[in-house]
Amino acid sequence: MNQALLRTTPDPLITTPLSHCLTLSAIHSPLDPAMDFIDLKTQYRRIKPSVDARIARVLEHGAYVMGPEVTELEQVLAKYVGTKHCVSVASGTDALMIALMALEIGPGDEVITAPFTFFASAEVIALVGATPVFVDVDPRTYNLDPQQLESAITPRTKAVMPVSLYGQCADFDAINAIACKHNLPVVEDAAQSFGATYKGRKSCALSLIGATSFFPSKPLGAYGDGGALFTDDDALATLMRQTRLHGQDRRYHHARLGLTARLDSLQAAVLLAKLEVFDDEVAARMRLGARYSSLLAEAFAGDAEAIRTPHVEPFNHSVYAQYTIEVDQRDLFETRMQALGVPTAVHYPLPLHLQPVFEALGQPAGSFPVAEAAARRVISLPMHPYLTEEQQVEVVKAVRQAAVD
């Protein structure tokens, strides 16, 4: 990749989206401290005995790195997803990076992904020396549009990396068919969709490699950074395990370049405790997401054009990592919601092709109109498994008032 693409911005101030803030349980409007955008405290109270006991066991045995909890977690996750291998790693970004490294993608190569997602999706492509190639998104799901995929493939294309955004899987049958025609591997960026299903199959088991994140805000979140890779390919699993440990194939013997990307035993312990209630939480997310849409449809029966609620394909089950609507005059809407005591967040306000670091790609505003329109209009409402029906009613009333008044 041309080094000009890695130009850093002169502004040292980095604005972090709410979904990537480390104090997620405290995200709320100052006017209504009881309304959390994501409520991790209630979840902890539910699973506190198991979390505390599992953490205590790690403290007792002292194997803080690659301890028995890590092995147990990988076995449980692989069974849950339905793949032969799970390789736990230190973050979702590491998961994507290791997937590309295991596929031996590097300088001169291209990887196709979507422009409307978190920065890491394109960042890892550039970090391995390859060039991100963007394909616009479906206007209903915000996921990579398969109909535009084939025209983006060139002789330099080495992989396709669709993102399963906001908790809903991309159309993997269509994507895989095109990729297979061109002999290209597909890596699912499932950072927001762990627990979701596509045509009855679990996210992370829909392509050659699935990569997810366990950041605290995710449907399955740790108490810090974490991630995992999934595959049925024995050779790739071996390469990914080596890569997360400095490319080491045995102690002090390094067959390849790698990273320090192991999942801590303490985070594995937390995730094992959370998995005990995860099925209940996924069901709650689906129920609450559907209820939001129903309540909003009723509230805006006479003003159907005022907002747009999420579209979930009939063959998908979304885990609603975010419940994201579209509104006109988003800044005004956001200000009004804050005044009404309801927290909101924008994921994501600037598409990847318009990020300063990718200026040298030469894709100005207008290059990906669907992604750009979504970036101007999307806003996410409070969403987590412990949201009460009364809180949902409060949120919907506020949305009605903020969007129409």
Structural write-up:
This protein is of the alpha+beta class. Helices cover 36% and strands 13% of the residues. It has 10 helices and 15 strands. It has a 4-stranded mixed beta sheet, sandwiched between helices. A 3-stranded parallel beta sheet has the order 3-2-4, covered by helices on one side. Helix 2 runs parallel beside helix 7 and helix 3 runs parallel beside helix 4. It starts with 39 loop residues before the first helix and ends with a helix. The relative contact order is 0.17.
Structural class determined from secondary elements? alpha+beta
Helix and strand succession?
HHEHEHEEHEEEEEHEEHEEEHHEH
State the low-pLDDT regions, or none.
1-32
Question: Could you tell me the radius of gyration in angstroms?
Answer: 21 Å
Helicity, as a percent range: 25-40%
For the termini, the CA-CA separation is 49 Å
Shape: globular
Mean pLDDT: 92
Q: Biggest β-sheet, characterized? A: 4 strands, mixed
Placed side by side, the strands forming the largest sheet appear as 1-9-8-5
How many E-type strands? 15
Please report which band the strand proportion falls in: under 5%, 5-15%, 15-25%, 25-35%, 35-45% or over 45%.
Answer: 5-15%
Total helical segments? 10
Question: What structural keywords apply?
Answer:
405 residues, alpha+beta, four-stranded mixed β-sheet, three-stranded parallel β-sheet, 10 helices, 15 strands, 36% helix, globular
Topology:
Blueprint: H1 40-61, H2 68-81, E1 85-89, H3 92-102, E2 110-113, H4 120-127, E3 131-134, E4 157-161, H5 172-181, E5 187-189, E6 197-198, E7 201-202, E8 209-213, E9 227-231, H6 234-243, E10 248-250, E11 253-254, H7 265-299, E12 307-308, E13 316-317, E14 323-327, H8 330-339, H9 369-377, E15 378-381, H10 389-404
Parallel strand pairs: 2-3, 2-4, 5-8
Antiparallel strand pairs: 1-9, 6-7, 6-13, 8-9, 10-11, 12-14, 14-15
Helix pairs in contact: 1-7, 2-7, 3-4, 3-6, 7-10, 8-10
